[in-house]
Amino acid sequence: MIPPEKLYRLLQSRGIGLFAGVPDSLLANFCAYVDDNGEDGSHVITANEGNAVALAAGYHMATGKFCAVYMQNSGLGNAINPLTSLADPEVYRLPMLLIIGWRGEPGVKDEPQHVKQGRVTLGQLELLGVPCRVLEAGSDAEAVVDELFADMARTNAPVALVVRKDTFAKYKSLRKAESLSDMTREQALDTLLALTGSDDLIISTTGKTSREVFELRVRRGEAQRDFLTVGGMGHTSSIALGVALGQPKRRVVCLDGDGSLLMHLGAMPVIGSLKPARLIHVLLNNAAHESVGGQPTAAGSIDFAAIALGSGYAAHRVAGDPASLRAAWRELVDHQGPVLLEVRIKAGSRDDLGRPTSSAEENKRAFMGAALGTAS
Ligand SMILES: Cc1ncc(C[n+]2csc(CCOP(=O)(O)OP(=O)(O)O)c2C)c(N)n1
Q1: Distance from CA of residue 169 to its chain's centroid?
Q2: What CATH architecture does domain 185-372 belong to?
Q3: Can you give the pTM of this predicted structure?
């Protein structure tokens, strides 16, 4: 296995002066190392992967140096537009190194949302004309990096390092998680599920939130009927908006994460301008990308009341324990929406947390059954 430090130092020695990206579980040890060593401003966790590509473009133009942009391969979709119409040799020709975690690699068992993306990752890069090399535990990292930098010197455009599962040796983050409250996400979700009614339509966000919602339904002896946004991170609130527009009489509860909300924050003013009256947007704020290793988001110091109200939401409440959560819910539940309920939680989850046992399509059918009143 490759010690994260080794790759980090190697990249620095080849002219990488900035690291930027969105964390990935497969790259978690590397991301943690970068985070611990980027206090001097040489590391930025961006809201989405396209932002990181753009940041790399600006950094290169300002310094002549290069930025390493890390991401899960799911994030390639967010990056494709700035890669194709900004950094590409047919446009501005802006060099940068992409470091892409290869979830769903063919032959490696993974969750349904990663299978297609894993299969097409190398093909997507080829189609974009981005030279790429694969890095794995047994790779000669120096040789691979040198080949890639030779490609970058030749094209003066983006190149990619595609990283296989279990490539990096363990690295324990030195960062101390700052808890926004003592409530766990699972406690908050349990409290919220108890407050919702059987007629409410629930859409939950990517990562452990949806895994916990799935398990809580089992534990509560209730049928699965919530839409679990296992892929498409950042789009949960837009899915919820679509549901709210389609079913204006039903209460729609969007269970969002702070990383997810920030990824496509532009959805909020659109929700605010359309004013779906029965939409409750719940933000489970742990100020971290907890599902993929706990790397921080900017949400620890953001005034979500100002964002919500400034975006046209009708109200905002904040809660930090089950009692205040119940009180805030009571105040908001019949409020003319949309409303934002910010639930401050601590980072962390059960070690034995499982994954949905039903397929994504089964989940969709269960949700549609609840929405259309055809549930068995
Ligand atoms: C486009 C995209 N980028 C990155 C990921 C990897 N990913 C899955 S969950 C997650 C963190 C989500 O953070 P947040 O919404 O704050 O929820 P938390 O995990 O803290 O509950 C990330 C980065 C992804 N699935 N899709």
Answers
A1: 23
A2: 3-Layer(aba) Sandwich (3.40)
A3: 0.97
User: 292, 302, 342: which to mutate for ligand 1, most atoms within 8 A of CB?
Assistant: 292
Q: Which amino acid, 255?
A: L
Residues 6+ apart with CB under 8 A from 265: 47, 307
Give, using CA atoms, the residue closest to atom 2 of ligand 1.
75
Mutate which of 206, 229, 255 for ligand 1? The one with the most ligand atoms within 8 Å of its CB, which is 206
4-163 under CATH 3.40.50.970, yes or no: yes
Question: 228 pairs with which residues across the strands?
Answer: 204
Q: Residue 249's CB: how many other CB atoms inside 10 A?
A: 7
Closest residue by Cα to atom 16, ligand 1, is 259
Read off the pLDDT band of 195 (50, 70, 90). very high
Query: Which residue(s) pair with 244 in the sheet?
Result: none
Give the domain ranges of the chain. Answer: 4-163, 185-372
Contact present, 253 and 224 (Cβ < 8 Å) = no
Helix (H) or strand (E) holding 7: helix 4-13
d(CA 313, CA 281): 10
**Tens digits of residue pLDDT in 215-231:** 999 999 999 999 999 99
Decide if 4-163 and 185-372 have a common fold. Answer: yes
Task: Find out whether 75 and 25 touch, Cβ atoms under 8 Å.
Answer: no
Placement of tokens 């694969």 in the chain: 134
